[in-house]
Structures are given as C-alpha cells and as structure tokens.
Design a protein that fits this description.
Number of domains: 2
Helix content: 55-70%
Distance between the termini: 76 Å
Shape: elongated
CATH architecture of the largest domain: 2-Layer Sandwich
Radius of gyration: 27 Å
CATH class of the largest domain: Alpha Beta
Oligomer: single chain
Strand order of the largest sheet: 2-1-5-4-3
Largest sheet: 5 strands, antiparallel
Strand content: 5-15%
Length: 247
C-alpha cells in the first residue's frame, strides 16, 4: 500500500529512505530530541518537495510552541503565527484538520498573521495535525516557495510523514516519562536507605526502639520544616547533634 502511494505521488525512494533511517537512528541514538526534529523537518520536506517544514506542539496548558524547523526562515513563520494568535498551522491543530492554502488564501483567512509578517513569505502551505491516542497535540507544517499543485497522493504522503513524526514524539515522551519514573524511584529508595540507617544508628546509640528513633527524627524534621531524609543524612554525617533530635 505504501509502495503504491509513493509511486502515485511521484515521491523519490531515497528521500523517503532518509526519513525512515533518521527516525530509527533518532530513537536509538543520543542526539537531542530538538536536533533530531530539525533533521527530520529537512528530510520530510525533501520527501514531498517542499521548501521547508516546521513542527508545533502544545504544552500541558494547550499553548502551542515551536519545537523545530528546517531552518530559521520557517521557525520565524511558525513563531509569527503564535505571536499573532492565528495562522494555517494553528488552525490545523485547533480543528484537527489539514489546511492547504496558497499565500493569497492565507492572507485572506488569517489577516493578523499576514499583517504580522508584512508579506506572506511562502506561496503554499500544507499544515497537518499531529495525533496520538485520539488527541491532537500539534502540527507538522510544509511550506513551498513557489506555487504547488498538491494532489491527493502528495497530501497522503504528507500525512504519513506527520504520523511518523507523531509516533516518534510519543515514543520519546514515553521514554522520558519512564526515565523520570526510574529516577524518582531510585531517589526514593536512596532516601529510604538513609532514613533506615539513621533510625538504626540512633536506636542503637540511645537504647530506644527503631520506631521511637524514627518518631524523633520525624518530629525534628516537622518542627524545622525539613525533609525527613535530609535530617537523617545530617544525623548520619554528624552535622546534626543527637541531642537536638531527641530534644
């Protein structure tokens, strides 16, 4: 099916292979996400013959931000839409529907954006929403410096590239969440180990039960508005006198 689509859309095999290779390497490499997205913008532009591309993603509050563009020209175009509060790429995100328009249509439909730029610096735009789990979280946007007649097949290839970009971003997000969870768990286990050590040492030193030692450490931490693990570490390192903890 993909082969037929590529053939009908007259898309070069080499640019497509470059995109797929970039996605795979980005997932398994150490390149920062932002740098990988810039490379991907350049590659997806080559696939469908666009001059350049940009990616917008919504933050947790729903506000769009520019996360990548194939070069500074297209970053400025994306940023101008956010500053103006309107534009084809914002519209694709907010309506969850693709936008295909030439420069005259863009100026007519989004006057604040056109006025912000002074002159629309592209002749054609195709903005494609990014979807994941039934939700729209951004847009992948292609720009042409000359008039372009986009057929159904070219639009389908553009959507395929957007789906690949969305999948990449979701995988990166999931990996970052997993990494954060592991880090938090390791931190929690480390803190727990410190508390157990301080509790055991205090109990042995003062001849009290471990439960009594923990209560003393916790009371001190609450009274001084400090984390229990921090108090426990100071106690172990000798920075906090035992007498202060026991009161």
């Amino acid at each position: 099916m993909v082969d037929e689509l590529i053939e009908r859309a007259d898309v070069g095999v080499q640019p497509l292979l470059a995109v797929l290779t970039r996605f795979v390497r980005a997932l398994h490499g150490d390149e920062p996400t932002a740098a990988a997205l810039v490379d991907l913008c350049q590659d997806v532009s080559a696939v469908i013959g666009a001059e350049g591309a940009g990616v917008m993603i919504a933050d947790d509050g729903g506000a769009l931000r520019v996360v990548a563009a194939s070069d500074e020209r297209f970053r400025r175009i994306e940023a101008a839409q956010i500053e103006a509060g309107e534009g084809p790429c914002i519209h694709a995100y907010s309506t969850a529907s693709p936008v295909v328009a030439d420069d005259a249509e863009v100026a007519a439909r989004f006057p604040a954006f056109a006025q912000h730029l002074g002159v629309v610096p592209f002749r054609m735009v195709h903005a494609v929403p990014l979807h994941a789990d039934g939700h729209t979280f951004g847009s992948l946007n292609y720009f042409w410096a000359a008039p372009a007649a986009l057929g159904v097949e070219q639009r389908e290839v553009a959507t395929l590239m957007a789906d690949l970009a969305a999948a990449y971003l979701m995988i990166v997000h999931d990996l970052e969440v997993s990494s954060s969870m592991v880090t938090n768990l390791q931190r929690a286990l480390s803190s727990r180990a410190v508390i157990e050590q301080a509790k055991g040492g205090l109990a042995m030193l003062e001849g009290i039960t471990p439960a009594g030692a923990f209560d003393a450490i916790r009371r001190y931490a609450r009274a001084h508005r400090r984390p229990v693990a921090e108090v426990a570490e100071d106690l172990i390192e000798g920075r906090l006198p035992v007498g202060d903890v026991l009161g």
